[in-house]
Every structure is written in C-alpha cells, then in structure tokens.
Please model this.
Amino acid sequence: MNYDGDKTSANANYFAKVCESNINNTIDNIKKNNSILKEMEEAGEIKIIGAIYNIENGKVDWID
Model:
C-alpha cells in the first residue's frame, strides 16, 4: 500500500486505507489457500467479499 501522509492511527484516512488493504489481503489469501471456496466462487456459487463494521454507528460497509 502506497501512502504519503501521516502513518498513524490518528490519521483517519490512513487508518481506513490500512483496514481496506487488510481486507483485500485476507480475501486474496482465502482465494489462494482454499481451493474449494475459490472454485465455488469461480462457478458462481458464492461470492467472496469483505466488509468493514463501524463500531460507532453499527453500519457495515461492503467492499466488492
């Protein structure tokens, strides 16, 4: 992840990018290491997507 700003948890923009990067890395690892789920997704039986849960407002943001 390339980011040129303040790289601390006090920077909400950086924190959001780190969270999204972590989710994308996890999805990539699932597809790489779980051939059954990867095949199911490729066959259209499931879709592997990520989400971020906001503990302040209870909202879930889905990442496609």
